[in-house]
Structure formats: C-alpha cells, structure tokens
Amino acid sequence: MFLTKQRGLSPAEAGTAMHFVMQHLDFANSNYAEQIEAMIERELLTQQQADSINLDQIRQFFESPLGLRLISSDNVHREVPFQIELPCHELYPDLLDENCKGETLLLQGVIDCYFEEGDGIVLLDYKTDYVPEEGTELIRDRYRVQINYYARALELLTRKQVKEKYIYLFSIGETLEF
Fold first, then answer.
1. pLDDT per position as a tens digit, 43-82
2. Which phi and psi (to 5°) does residue 133 adopt?
3. Most CB atoms closer than 10 Å: which of 41, 65, 162, 167?
4. How does pLDDT run across 114-144, given as a tens digit for each residue?
C-alpha cells in the first residue's frame, strides 16, 4: 500500500478504475464527479483510483454520437462475462496434427458494454491504452481478433445479431468501427 501511494497507479490499474466507473455510472445523471464521489464514500473506489479518472474524457465519450446512442438505449448491458468453446485449430492453426485434432479450447472474457437498438446489437469495448500519434491502425490491428470473438460470443449469448462493433479510445476521444 505504501509503495502504491508513492508511485501512483500503473496504466493497467488506472484502466481498471476507468472500466469500473463506466460500469457503475448512471447515464441519466450527467454529474459524473458527484457519482464518483459517491463511489468513494461507499468505498467502491479509493481516492487514488478516483483521481486517475479523467472526467473530461468521460464527458467527451457521452457527448459523442456513439455515447448519445448508448444513453438513448433502453437496453444496456455492462461487464458481461462469457465463455465459448472453440476448436483448437481455430486459435492455433499450426497445431493441426494429431495432438490437436478434435480438441477444443475454452475462451473466456468480459464484454465491456453492449446495447440494443431496434435492428440489432451494438458492441462497445473501451480502451484506455496510450495511442501514439497516427497509431489508431495499430490499435485496430491489436484488437481486431478480440472484438470479433466478443461479437461471436455475444451472438451466441443473446441469439441476436451484432450489427456494429466499436472500440472507444478514451485517451484520444476516438471511436474505431470494425
């Protein structure tokens, strides 16, 4: 605890705090500072975690076209765990020999957010990663497989079509569509 106070939160810890806040915010109440203060009072967040949250980034997200769509949805789901069974060769194509034949792997994850609109599901993943200048394609490539597996899992869970897939980059206020 002493060392943590001295050095501050790591980027991963700050990202976890941001995901926690996004999971628990009441979208109908735009006083995000008040809501975060209430999370501290209820001991859901430490002061240090709360200090790592950039309220301007949250406001910017909710003022974006995607954020406005999320707020207007009557059916929003956050932090949805999933697990799907996949053929071994799908994840490890080089292992098509007898050792992998017929074997399956269990893929587990947590979907940050999805919301429903009349014609399908919109999948949303938040990222707090640092994005280098001109680096959105790097981020897109890094997370393409992940977002596609999330969509696949979501369709299996809900039996509904994922019509759109997005990653929102808090650090630069940009939305990537897949």
1. 999 999 999 999 999 999 999 999 999 999 999 999 999 9
2. -55, 135
3. 167
4. 999 999 999 999 999 888 877 899 899 999 9
Q: Percentage of residues in the chain with pLDDT exceeding 90? A: 78
Residue 6 has pLDDT above 70, yes or no: no
User: CA 116 → CA 82, 123, 160, distances in Å?
Assistant: 18, 9, 9
DSSP per-residue letters across the chain: -HHHHHH---HHHHHHHHHHHHHH--TT---HHHHHHHHHHTTSS-HHHHHT--HHHHHHHHHSHHHHHHHH-S-EEEEEEEEEEEEHHHH-GGG-STTTTT-EEEEEEEEEEEEEETTEEEEEEEE-----TT-HHHHHHHHHHHHHHHHHHHHHHHSS-EEEEEEEETTTTEEEE-
**Whether the predicted pLDDT of 1 surpasses 50:** no
Contact 37, 81 (CB under 8 A): no
Q: Can you tell me the distance from the alpha carbon of 101 to that of 98, in angstroms, rounded to the nearest whole number?
A: 5
Cβ atoms 38, 29 nearer than 8 A: no
Instruction: Select from 163, 69, 62 the least CA-distant residue to 122.
Output: 163
